[in-house]
């Protein structure tokens, strides 16, 4: 079974809301990616937007920056607010902001849950002329362990070429690079627990209870060490 973007978005809202507390502790790869984005963005100035902020890892690394964080999960936004950050509930595909008010937009591990055509159009709308967009996005080849264990794909990541071509429709690309992140787990169940604790569900709601139990069974029967991998594409671009 494959997911449509709308299904993924609904699953994202539910899964990440449930995992908001454990996400803060267990989302190791997401933190590493956020650190890379923050290092590149450290010289940006003005008002920034963090699209799909999660629990605000980017703001954690850029505490002195004036950044408004937006996430579709109220639970994630509540954690950001408890940290003392500016954060609002909102959808990247329908940003709750006026036109051309942000000097830059950052996004870490979030755009793959959206329709890129709509998301880029919305980000372009809220960015000032000359404003920067800097983001990371998982691309094809990510989460290979899930395919190995289940024998099927539940995630349809975009290709590197698709992301680049869609970004070029709205922005002038300044820099891009790809980096693979890996985490080792002792067996399938250890991997499954990590996925649940970081909001990555592999048992969509439209499956029957029997099908969901079969997924858990497949992971529990996988006794070999396994690697969680994400192929991340990083792009820095500018609104011309």
- Structural Rg: 18 Å
- State the helical fraction: 40-55%
Largest sheet: 7 strands, mixed
Strand order of the largest sheet: 3-2-1-4-5-7-6
Uncertain runs are 1-5
Helix-strand string: HHHEHEHEEHEHHEHHE
Q: What is the CATH architecture assignment?
A: 3-Layer(aba) Sandwich
Care to count the β-strands? 7
Q: Give me the CATH superfamily.
A: Vaccinia Virus protein VP39
* CATH class (first level) name: Alpha Beta
- The pLDDT mean sits at 90
| Number of helical segments with 4 or more residues | 10
Fill in the CATH topology. Rossmann fold
The tally of domains stands at 1
Strand-pairing-aware structural class: alpha/beta
**What is the approximate shape?**
globular
């Amino acid at each position: 079974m494959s997911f449509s973007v709308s299904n993924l978005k609904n699953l994202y809202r539910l899964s990440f809301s449930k995992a908001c507390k454990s996400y803060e502790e267990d989302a190791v790869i997401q933190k590493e990616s956020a650190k890379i984005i923050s290092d590149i963005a450290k010289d940006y100035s003005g008002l920034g937007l963090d699209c799909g902020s999660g629990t605000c890892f980017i703001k954690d690394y850029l505490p002195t920056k004036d950044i408004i964080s937006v996430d579709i999960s109220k639970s994630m936004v509540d954690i950001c607010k408890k940290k003392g950050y500016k954060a609002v509930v909102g959808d990247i595909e329908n940003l709750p902001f006026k036109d051309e008010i942000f000097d830059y937009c950052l996004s870490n591990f979030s755009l793959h849950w959206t329709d890129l055509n709509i998301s880029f159009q919305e980000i372009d709308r809220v960015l000032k002329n000359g404003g920067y967009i800097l983001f990371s996005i998982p691309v094809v080849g990510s989460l290979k362990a899930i395919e190995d264990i289940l024998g099927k794909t539940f995630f349809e990541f975009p290709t590197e070429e698709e992301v680049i071509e869609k970004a070029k429709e709205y922005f002038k690309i300044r820099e891009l690079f790809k980096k693979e992140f890996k985490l080792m787990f002792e067996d399938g169940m250890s991997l499954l627990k990590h996925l649940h604790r970081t909001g990555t569900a592999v048992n969509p709601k439209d499956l029957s209870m029997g099908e969901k139990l079969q997924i858990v069974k497949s992971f529990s029967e996988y006794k070999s060490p396994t690697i969680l991998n994400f192929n991340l594409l990083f792009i820095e671009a500018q609104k011309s």
